Amino acid sequence: MVPRFTKVLVLLVVVGLVSAGCSKKKDTTTAASESGGGTITIAGQSANDHGEKTVSGGSLDVELDDFYFNPTTIKGPAGSQVTLNLKNESGTKHNFTLADQNVNQDLDPHQDVTVTVTMPASGSLQFHCEYHEGSGMIGQLEAA
Ligand SMILES: [Cu+2]
Fold first, then answer.
1. 21 alpha carbon – ligand 1 mean position (Å)
2. What is the CA(129)–ligand 1 centre distance, in A?
3. 75-103: b or e for each residue (b if 16 or more CB lie within 10 Å)?
4. Are 52 and 86 in contact (CB under 8 A)?
5. Which residues make up the environment of ion ligand 1, defined by Cβ < 5 Å?
6. What are the Cα distances from residue 142, in Å, to 9, 62, 63, 82, 131?
7. What are the DSSP calls for 95-135, one per residue?
8. CA-to-CA distance for 65 and 2, rounded, in angstroms?
9. Among the listed ranges 33-42, 65-74, 121-130, which one has the minimum average pLDDT value?
10. CB count in 10 Å sphere of residue 131
11. 3-class SS of residue 77
12. Strands 68-70 and 112-118, bridge-based pairing
């Protein structure tokens, strides 16, 4: 028969391992979400930067959160039509405005909306959230 204190010890070790695993996981997530941190300048404005991605297969998921677009820079073939699967991951109402192409799409909290945009023939094109542009919620389409 195994002494009671041994069982308790085993339980403590298991709990310790599980919580160590959890905290390690949480640290990784935090690091990932902050890896694109900092700001970049888009069309003369300060934008919260959450990295860049290149469109493949004609579509791309774009996360909207407080207060940034992820990815912030969307690269794709010059002049091509691209589908953006916009996902508002926050409890705040956001918006995707691409003034140049008359796109102005609101997204309620946790709402997903698909929009179609045309990549610029060259250079880049600014888009933003019309509610939080002043907070740096700005991104860009870039001809690849
Ligand atoms: Cu917003």
1. 34
2. 5
3. bbeeeeebebebbbeeebebbbbbeeeee
4. no
5. 94, 129, 131-132, 137
6. 58, 15, 17, 12, 23
7. EEEEGGGTEEEEE-TT-EEEEEEE--SSSEEEEE-TTTGGG
8. 53
9. 33-42
10. 15
11. coil
12. unpaired
* DSSP-assigned states of every residue in 6-72: HHHHHHHHHHHHHHHHHHHHHHHHHHHHHHT-SEEEETTEEEE---EEE-BTTEEEEEEETTEEESS
Q: Write out pLDDT tens, residues 27-65.
A: 333 333 444 579 999 999 999 999 999 998 899 999 999
Burial class (CB in 10 A: 0-12, 13-18, 19+), 53: middle
Q: Are 101 and 119 in contact (CB under 8 A)?
A: no
What spacing in Å lies between the alpha carbon of 54 and ligand 1's midpoint? Answer: 23
**pLDDT tens per residue, range 20-32:** 444 444 333 333 3
Q: Cα separation of 132 and 24, whole Å?
A: 33
CA of 48 from ligand 1 middle (Å) equals 12
* H-helix or E-strand spanning residue 143: strand 138-143
